[in-house]
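Tokens as discussed.
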């Protein structure tokens, strides 16, 4: 397991004997990354509900979709192994599935938008961001370690997911820190033009941005303007 986390390959993988990496090793890598993403999404969602943060819950949904993408990447590798001559078609089909998952995540976020959030607990947001960043850095390290020894289309796409999740978790922690400063200084709202905007409104705005981002990503994948598996 340590070898997988550090290099992206099992110790028994043929790549260490200068041979092509096995599909079995790749599938195990993607599944491990998926389990780590599930852990990050689950912890982030729990802390998001506790914090009353729509933004944090939105990021949890984003990470959860990426975990499904990792598991689906493992499934694709299995299909490519059995039907190598259809690799292009298989990966295009994978793109459609990932796009649909992104749309579902965006819908979940927008539905959650109508749930009332009366208070925010910034410390819980910060903790969610820190834990998520740590787990996603581990995923990124694991997937990047593989790049040194071998390259793979699915791995390249999943590493983008991991890097994206690192930044998004960092954003959650950063916003939580800003809200904590507001709390410490008893700032109820800040003036933006002619409006006074409360932290809860800012939280909703960031969460909505995540939903729009996921929708645009899905559209880009379906139109061939973004990466696919």
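Sequence:
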């Amino acid at each position: 397991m340590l070898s997988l986390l550090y290099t992206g390959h099992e110790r028994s993988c043929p790549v260490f004997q200068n041979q092509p990496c096995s599909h079995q090793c790749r599938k195990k890598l993607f599944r491990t990354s998926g389990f780590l993403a599930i852990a990050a999404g689950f912890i982030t969602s729990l802390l998001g509900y506790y914090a009353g943060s729509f933004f944090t819950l939105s990021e949890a949904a984003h990470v959860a979709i990426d975990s499904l993408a990792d598991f689906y990447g493992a499934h694709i590798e299995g299909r490519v192994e059995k039907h190598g001559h259809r690799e292009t078609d298989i990966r295009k089909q994978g793109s459609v599935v990932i796009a649909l998952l992104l749309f579902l995540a965006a819908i979940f976020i927008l539905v959650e938008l109508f749930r009332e959030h009366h208070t925010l607990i910034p410390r819980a947001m910060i903790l969610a961001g820190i834990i998520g960043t740590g787990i996603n850095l581990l995923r990124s390290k694991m997937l990047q370690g593989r790049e040194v020894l071998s390259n793979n289309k699915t791995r390249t796409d999943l590493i983008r997911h991991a890097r994206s999740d690192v930044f998004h978790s960092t954003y959650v922690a950063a916003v939580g820190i800003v809200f904590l400063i507001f709390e410490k200084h008893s700032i109820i709202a800040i003036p933006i033009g002619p409006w006074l905007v409360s932290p809860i409104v800012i939280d909703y705005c960031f969460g909505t941005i995540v939903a729009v981002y996921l929708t645009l990503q899905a559209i880009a994948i379906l139109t061939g303007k973004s990466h696919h598996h």
